[in-house]
Amino acid sequence: MWCAVQATSLLGAKHVSYGVGDVGTEKDVNRLVDQALKELDGGVDVLVANAGVGRKGTIDQVTADEYRDTFRTNVKGVYLWLNKIVPVMKKQQSGQIIVMSSIMGTRTAPGSALYAASKHALEGMIGCVRKDLSGSGIKGLWFVI
After folding, report:
1. What is the CATH number of domain 2-8+29-144?
2. Which of 18, 67, 79, 115 is catalytic?
3. Residues in the chain with pLDDT < 50?
4. pTM of the model
5. In sequence order, which residues have a C-beta less than 8 Å from that of residue 114 and are 6 or more positions away?
């Protein structure tokens, strides 16, 4: 949360909304978006998507549940937020989307197949979203950390 608050402050945001929930659960995202829209008078200038989980292990060591949880948080979580916030920003014809990713979204390493796969998926999605939003007044960025 500190990173999100710091990032929005650096971008000049005067009001920040944050909450606690599971980013990969549509019910929680809907609740948090509704809360944010109330707190921010219906508009959103900056979305910082900064949640992620990592599971170490070779492909034969990680479980199907770990696979599901990793993709639910690292990919579906970003999708759910973008799905709800992009229409708000399109209506405003402005906004900034910041997605935190990982160097593993462009590289590979032993014992990281699951995490790297989720971050590769995220990088692909954000690259396409950036192109989809061209000319909309919305800027899409991502940071590799």
Report:
1. 3.40.50.720
2. 115
3. 1-5
4. 0.87
5. 55, 57, 59, 62, 66, 67, 70
